[in-house]
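Archive transcription. Copying these from loose printouts into the bound notebook so they stop getting lost. Printout 1 of 2:
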Amino acid sequence: MKYSSLMGTILAMGLAAPAAAQVTVDETVCGASPGGLWSLVGAGLDTAVKELSPGSTVTYQTSSGGLANVAQVAAGTCALGMANDGDLVFASNGTEPFEEPVEGLTAIAVLYDWAPVWWIARADWADQHGIETLADFAEKQPPTRLVFNRRGLLTSAITEATLEALGVTLEDVESWGGSVQFQASGEQTTLMRDGRVDLLANTLFEGHSSLSQMAAATELRLIEVPDEAAEAVIEQYGLQPWTIPESENPGEGGDVDTVTTSIILFADESLDEEIAYTITRAMIDHSSAMAAVSDAMQRFAPEGMLAQDVLPFHPGAVRAYEEAGLR
């Protein structure tokens, strides 16, 4: 009997041909600290992949963050890594701390892009000096106790570059009678709550508990990032524009324009296409597993996974997006 006749007989009997075997994933993703959001995202990724391909495992490996993860993925220590968009721009361009461009990096998915940069001021300081935007700050040069996030983090680099785009250096701030500190997020909150700083800059999720803690202690004002400064850091760090809505503003005022960073799941181009496909498809088909790991991840949706242009997408990821009608 010819093959076509045999298949016709099978289908006529109501039987289907066996499905292709599902690829099993056993890979490691390099993240950051063991108890932070990235570790929870890693757990969500593992759950999603297991849902699609039982028996699979994605193991979260602690790391010092995005810059280190680029090196570990390039060296093959981890198949997957998490990094800020700015870290990946620096890696691709060979910008310090990279001595030369890191070739072959590809994107799997945007994990989240809703941690905007907040410029938060004490209301009494902002009202006294008439500061509504960073352009006002640059023009009026008020004495300011300013605090950025820790040195060496992308957040502090972005905020410092934002001022530089307006012609303001940290030395300028000090020459105006002010001071500049670099402190971790928790210490920033304490400093603002205790009235020991006038202006802080940090990346935070909308609704973050620190916002309500600061607002309960002192009246706040959000300071807007003017277009020229936003455009400069968007180009330099591969960021995206963002508007903090009035509903999330912890002080008086309406919507406030700023920029936001993205966290991208990436891999080397040598990652097996079926593995990349399966991981991407798992996040698409089981996005609820990603969204469930933390209140901060509730916005996760397949449509947002493509919202980056820092790296080319891995061919396996492209296939998954095309099959899902997302690209």
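Printout 2 of 2:
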Amino acid sequence: MTIEQAIAHSLSKPWGVADPRPWSRAGRGDNTIGEIWYERSGLAAAAPALLLKLLFTNQPLSIQVHPGDAYARSIGLPNGKTEAWYVLSAASEAKVALGLKRHLTPQEMRQAVEDGSISDLVVWQGVWAGDTVFVPAGTIHAIGAGLVIAEIQQRSDATFRLFDHGRGRALHIDNAIAVADAGPAGIQVAPSRLGPGRVLLASNALFTFEKMDLAPKSAWCLEAKQETWALIIGGGARAGSFNVAMGDAIFAQSDRVDIRAGVVGLSGLLAYAGRFDPEVLQCVDKETIQ
């Protein structure tokens, strides 16, 4: 039985920003903060299966692809990397790339990576605050400039770069060709409202991603049967024994977290291992959400 307030660690990236506020207070003053990772607070805590993080982009990220579990294990890694993004903030022309304009043979893909034309073959699409993007392992993708994104992913740093905007970092052509679905991306499933306070953003065998909007002073019960993360993106609450506000995160597993939303309510993202569980979050004070 575990309830912890997660620790936020900032990571410097060449494409990051100088100040992550208002989304996080972590790492302020560091140079070009690109990511903030939320980690368990216990020193002897078992490594979680999922990684919750924030991304801040002042420049476009590399065009890249992640392996699935089978390929990752074949090269000595514990698992692959499927991920989902929730857009917290987007500049007026912000965009992401998913998939290719057409199917490529392995030989065509190698040539496109070597001559840089892969950058003209990815499919860019505009994104706005509140959008959700699901990125299964094997999907060629990129994140453009001017975005703040909350991401839930399998806990893996297995990334195979195809194009890096002249930054001089290594490309991973053979591995990328081996794992990439070298064609158009799959159709995105639209979020679905589950009732008061909950919207299902994405769900698959690896994890479920939800948005929660809790009315002012409402009371809720979070039944964390599996590994569960909650990120506060607006307002505040009392969660278990912790007071949480924007940028804070909670980790829970095999435990119940009593949540009392603050005077302005609470907006957050909820991620947990496995497929959608209708009972993971329940209102216990119905009068406050009428």
